[in-house]
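Hi Q.,

Before the meeting this afternoon, I wanted you to have the NAP prediction in hand. No need to reply - just skim if you have a minute. The sequence and ligand are here:
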Amino acid sequence: MSDQTLCMLGCGNLGTAILQSLLDAPPNSLCGITQFIACVKSEQSESRLKRLFSQHQNVRIMRNENLAALRDSHVTILGVDPSQVEATLEGNENEQSTGWGPPIENALMGKLLISIVAGWTRPAIETLINSETDLIDSRYPDAERAWVLRTLPNVAALVSQSMTAIEDHPSPLFPPQFKDIATAIFAQIGKPMFIPPALMPATTAVAGSTPAFWAIIVDSLVDAAVAVGVPRKVAQKQIYQSMRGSAEMLQSGIQPGELRDMGTSPEGCTIAGVMVLEEGGVRGVLGKALRESVTVARAMGKVGEKGREVHVNDTRKI
Ligand SMILES: NC(=O)c1ccc[n+]([C@@H]2O[C@H](COP(=O)([O-])OP(=O)(O)OC[C@H]3O[C@@H](n4cnc5c(N)ncnc54)[C@H](OP(=O)(O)O)[C@@H]3O)[C@@H](O)[C@H]2O)c1
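Predicted structure with the ligand bound:
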């Protein structure tokens, strides 16, 4: 496969960051994707993207032309806000259908649609695209359905350090080359990881919410450093680097307990601080905060559904 086109259907904060990383990808690292289309809704965004990508001959900016963009593309990333998914995938009613389904369905037939939208499950998106989802496996030959892959990057995609969860597709007919394409795309913005569908709500919080948690922890440490006389900019540099070094040690295989033990000597200052953290119940508070995020992630997109999934360790029933 060569000269494939990727459409960013909704090119806002995250879509732009992903597109920029893909444009920097080494040659031949994107499974034949060389052309890009960025779709937006407003004139303001259109102008912003035209300025931003003016040097790139292989990027087309399209506004209010989603259907044409989808027809011209081999792979699409759905990057609109969760509240805009339905309107976006309903498509342009004025366009003529060329087959047995609605226009968007036809434009995506046999292609890969990667969703990065938080809270929207794969079946919910498939229901919007495919006109007769209950018949999807029996009626449509595998080449003739739109294949939806749900993913969840995190905000660190902005610096190509995203932890991106890619939900395993349950169908044995899922084309293996689509898995390769998704892996290649998300390897450009950080680390991709395939996970089973049942882990998606937990991952939404574990990988998606934790950057905000780190931000609060770091902010409180910087404030404390300022309180004892360290200039804020100096404190920020020291603490950010401390965080980065700790992350690299942990990623190298050192266990958290080992890391703590390496830095704590008898009667030392570090163990004194650790004692205060334990006294304040920091593990319990962080643990409950994460469980709360998971509880809400599990409920997202399921409001009104009967028999909603609740885990025994969720913090409450929503
Ligand atoms: N930001 C994150 O850290 C993060 C992390 C994980 C997942 N996500 C998910 O990523 C998605 C995008 O987030 P974001 O922060 O990038 O949002 P955003 O900045 O609001 O971007 C959304 C984009 O979609 C465009 N759009 C809206 N309706 C459209 C339509 N009908 N056709 C074409 N384009 C349309 C908007 O265009 P206009 O600007 O012209 O209105 C905008 O460029 C969300 O679903 C979010 O849940 C985000």
